[in-house]
Design brief:
The chain contains twelve helices and ten strands. By secondary structure, the protein is an alpha/beta fold. Strand 1, helix 2 and strand 2 form a beta-alpha-beta unit. Helix 2 crosses helix 10.
């Protein structure tokens, strides 16, 4: 009996000791000095007001305000990827979203400041979407000859891709079509009014501007064949970032009627410069990854942000702060 009581008493002492250690551990964790989040102001160059870049930027700004309440994020609308790369490279913006092909093109066309560019994370893929009225006679890219086509502003990623896709299809943007500088903010309305016959868009799925258009207007997509993508790859280094892809049948259900669309995709990157504080970029990279589900519930494309692929920011090396983050979460 005394042995049983002794065992019960020892067991209670052990439980009490364990509970005490847990309490002391929690108290030590609470009192231990923790790293304060970065403060200050940063600028992020996004895209047109109706595009996915801008929508993603707004959601990311909200996530940053929770993780780093002392850090102010200023969003700068832009014409798109090409302008975004130039802004970061020349110090006009601290961060930007840009397609990988535009980053590579900047190196070959206007390399000022390229060596300072760094990647934080690979975000999601842009899908090239060529839109025409449902009753249009345009069935393939070659049928755009002589037509008024929205191809995006001069410094946009849309124009860069449109020019290349047209060339791979035997058309010259400046000679064979009537190019218009429409963005996703203007092209849907001008298509409905008959002021343009078609327009190019490169963005995440679904893009709100096209979702809105589908509610009021019948349109369809012109496919981009895998042969066209193969022809693009043969044209140089900057073209290797294009991948033959299929736009899922449920991207725009009322438009596609259960049918996928052959097209091409290109990866989007969150970029910065080498001189940005590594502690800031480490925190920001963490926020991007951790906010994926929350942002993705509003911006569908953001659901594709993935820790396993985020480190692949070619053609840019990772920023040191981003590298620190990925090392800290490596299994």
């Amino acid at each position: 009996m005394f042995q049983a009581l002794h065992r019960i008493g020892a067991h209670r002492v052990l439980l009490a000791s364990t509970a005490g250690l847990v309490v002391l551990g929690l108290l030590a964790w609470w009192l231990w000095p923790r790293e304060e989040p970065p403060t200050g102001t940063i600028s992020v160059s996004t895209g047109s007001s109706s595009g996915v870049y801008q929508d993603y930027g707004k959601r990311l700004r909200n996530a940053v305000s929770k993780d780093m309440p002392g850090l102010k994020v200023e969003l700068k609308t832009s014409d798109g990827s090409q302008q975004n790369v130039a802004r970061v490279a020349t110090g006009q913006a601290d961060f930007a979203i840009a397609a990988a092909d535009a980053v590579e093109t900047y190196r070959s066309v206007d390399p000022k400041g390229f060596e300072r560019l760094r990647g934080l994370t690979r975000l999601y893929d842009d899908y090239v979407q060529i839109v025409v009225p449902h009753d249009s006679t345009i069935e393939r890219i070659q049928d755009l000859k002589g037509k008024r086509v929205g191809v995006g502003p001069k410094d946009s990623g849309v124009r860069l891709i449109a020019q290349r896709v047209l060339r791979a299809s035997g058309l010259d943007l400046d000679k064979d079509i009537k190019p218009e500088n429409d963005t996703i903010g203007t092209a849907p309305k001008r298509l409905r009014e008959g002021k343009i016959n078609a327009f190019f868009w490169s963005g995440g799925l679904p893009t709100q501007g096209l979702v809105d258009l589908a509610e009021a207007y019948d349109f369809r997509f012109i496919p981009i064949s895998s042969r066209t993508v193969a022809d693009l790859h043969a044209q140089g280094e900057a073209y290797r970032y294009y991948r033959s892809s299929v736009m899922p049948a449920d991207a725009y259900p009322s438009v596609q009627n259960g049918r996928p669309v052959q097209t091409l995709t290109v990866a989007n990157l969150l970029i910065t410069r080498e001189d940005l504080d590594p502690r800031l970029t480490e925190w920001l990279t963490r926020t991007v990854i951790n906010s994926r589900d929350n942002i993705g519930s509003h911006v569908h494309a953001a659901q594709l942000v993935d820790l396993r692929t985020a480190i692949y920011t070619n053609p840019l090396p990772l920023h040191e702060g981003a590298r620190r983050y990925y090392r800290s979460v490596k299994p």
